[in-house]
Each structure stands twice: as C-alpha cells, then as structure tokens.
Amino acid sequence: MSKQVYISADYALFDGDRDVVEELNKWGSDNLHKVDFIDMSKVASGSVSKDPDCRICDLKQEFNRQINASSAVIFVVGDKTALRTAGSSCRRAGSSQYYCDCTPYKQNTNGTKPCKVPFTFAPGGNDVGNINSYSYLEHEFKQAEKRNKTIIVVYNSLRKESAWLPSYMKNYENIARPFWTKNLWGEKVGDYSYIKEVLGY
Questions:
Q1: Collapsing DSSP states into helix, strand and coil, what is residue 10?
Q2: Angle of helix 136-146 versus helix 56-68 axis, rounded to 10
Q3: For strand 37-39 and strand 72-77, is the pairing parallel, antiparallel, or unpaired?
Q4: Mind listing the pLDDT tens digit for each residue in 53-97?
C-alpha cells in the first residue's frame, strides 16, 4: 500500500541536500526496496510554480495542500538548512498592500511586482497562513506540526548533527537521526531500515 510522504529539503544545486532526496525517491520507485511511498513534494503537473506570476504566498499555499494530503513528512537537515531564508521576504503580514511588493518565484531578473493580495486575515483554522515571513522550510515544518503529521527529521550526515537544527526544530533534537550509515563493506548508504520502520512498513 502506497503512503503519501512529503519531503522537505534544501534543493540548492551545489550545497543543498538533493542526494538524500534522490536516495529516498529511489527507494520509493525501485523493485529492491519495499518502501512504497509517493513523494508529495514533487508535483507532476498543475503546480502553481509553472505560473510566471507565481508568488511566495502561492507556493506556501501549495505546500499546505501537499502536506495536508500526506501521512508523513520527512525533513532533511543539512549544514546550511538553518541559514536558508528563501520565502521569508514577504512583508504583507504587517503592511498594507500598497506598501508591499515581491519578486515572483524564479523571476529575479524581472524585478519586483506589487503585492497581489488585497485582503489578509488573522491566522487561524487548520493551516498556517500563507501570508507570513517564514522561510519555505520553516513554513513547511510549522504546517506539518499544526496538522499533527508524523514528522521524521534526518541529518544529511553519517552522524548526529544537533548544531545544524534550525531553532524551530529544536524540540526534535532527541529524535533526529543521521540519514547515512555504513554497510558491511564500509560504503556510505542511506539508513533504509530506519526510514522503513518509522513509516510503518
């Protein structure tokens, strides 16, 4: 039975944590491993990110939908995770629309545009509001917590790296685990047995 799992990670090309994500996705698609999950953070079609006017708030709203549809969320923590601020530049939460602008997603060369959100509402309900100054990573984490999802925190490391945890994840220090381990031949491999166990397989 497939489980819908959301993977949150730093996707920076040269110093992010794509290697962990690629390993997880490999397990979910090959015939060797028995972790049959769907990575909900990979939207195959219809993603708002394809809209040339996609904004920070649009992406956060999409993250909420994907996390809500997932049974578990895996957070990959690398040595740069706590420093990542992408998604935090929205000033609309504390200012009127007239005084706010933002840069559409992946459109930095085109400059900023006026905020397109005419009305905001006080946070409440079952979701983290998509108008906020959280980074994308922090927003995803807060949404998973608010929705009481199974949260799995792994370090992109062979050892426990508590100093890498962002402040908003500090309560998970005791359960965070290294993602990588060594096999019988001394090769670096993902800790498949741990992920399988915490996902309930």
A1: coil
A2: 30
A3: unpaired
A4: 889 999 999 999 999 999 999 999 999 999 999 999 898 888 899
Q: What does the block give as tokens for 98?
A: 């007239």
Structure tokens at 113: 């545009």
pTM: 0.91
Contact of 115 with 102, CB cutoff 8 Å: yes
Q: Say if CB 70 and CB 43 are below 8 A apart.
A: no
**Residue 130 is encoded by which pair of tokens?**
């998509």
Contacts of residue 150, defined as CB under 8 A and 6 or more positions apart, other chains included, come to 71, 72, 73, 198, 199
Residue 114 bridge partners (DSSP): 101
3-state helix, strand, coil in the chain (%, to 5): 30, 15, 50
- The residue whose two tokens read 């993902």 is 190
3-state secondary structure of 180: strand
What is the distance, to the nearest Å, from the Cα of residue 201 to the centroid of all Cα atoms in its chain?
22
What are the φ/ψ torsions at residue 190 (nearest 5 degrees)? -70, 145
With b for 16 or more beta-carbon neighbours within 10 A and e for fewer, the 38-59 pattern comes to: bbbbeeeeeebeeeeebbbbbb
Percent of the chain with pLDDT over 90: 60
